[in-house]
Amino acid sequence: MARKTYTEEDRARVRQALLDTGLNMAVSKGLKGLHLAELAAAVGISKPYFYTFFDSLEDFSLQMMEEQRCRLLRLLEQELARPEGTWEEHVESFFRTILRHRENGILVMTQGEEADQHSRLTPERFQDFRPGQRDFFLRLMALLDIRQEDCAPEVLANLVFSCLLIYNSAPESMPFLFPSHLEETAALHVKFLVNYLGSLRNAKKDR
After folding, report:
1. What is the pLDDT of residue 11?
2. How far apart, in whole angstroms, are the C-alpha atoms of residue 137 and residue 156?
3. Nearest to 63 by CA among 39, 95, 37, 96
4. pLDDT of 146 above 90
């Protein structure tokens, strides 16, 4: 049987299909439930062909995160463009969508998955990944009309990640929290975050 020849357009479509399918699998099963054989079969390619796009499953996971960051920026743009509602309501809706990530098709790692993913990366590869994280939050801040001088992107990242981590990891890895009150706690976290971001946005306007 002759080997199939892929054009550059074909390759672009296959790469996007891998990212889309991988994200869907990771959302429903977690990163540990993401298996190369199942992913390749779902997209209709061989396992060796997968490695012409990505060096490893770990590299693929990082590329999935980059794909998701682009989706989240588009989601915020769409939310802010809605004619009805206030800026605060739009931003709160955006963060609530991320908070309820599984039902909205968004991949958010648990504390255990973060530790496992980090352990599989070389220090160099992890450092290569960091600028993309920072750039994402800079772009998020630009959409929210917040200046870097008023809030470091790393601080915003920590605020968002801490909220997600508590909501997503308890009670499995945070047994001393009260799981019966996680919903209320998460709602307050989002409120506090939106109020803080609103104060930064208003501070910029006052200058």
Report:
1. 94
2. 7
3. 39
4. yes
CA distance 16 to 83: 32
* Cα–Cα distance list, 146 to 82, 103, 185, 192, 197 (Å): 19, 29, 25, 16, 8
The answer for residues whose C-beta is within 8 angstroms of residue 85's C-beta and 6 or more apart is: 93
Phi then psi for residue 31, to 5 deg, are -65, -35
Smallest Cα–Cα separation from 112: which of 153, 170, 188?
170
pLDDT band at 4; cut points 50, 70, 90: low
Residue 51: DSSP 8-state = T
At 1, which amino acid appears? M
Q: What is the pTM of this model?
A: 0.89
Contact 64, 23 (CB under 8 A): yes
Name the 3-class secondary structure at 155. helix
Taking the C-alpha atoms of residue 205 and residue 201, their distance in angstroms, rounded to an integer, is: 7
Our CA angle for 125, 95, 15, nearest 5°, is 40
How many residues appear in the chain? 207
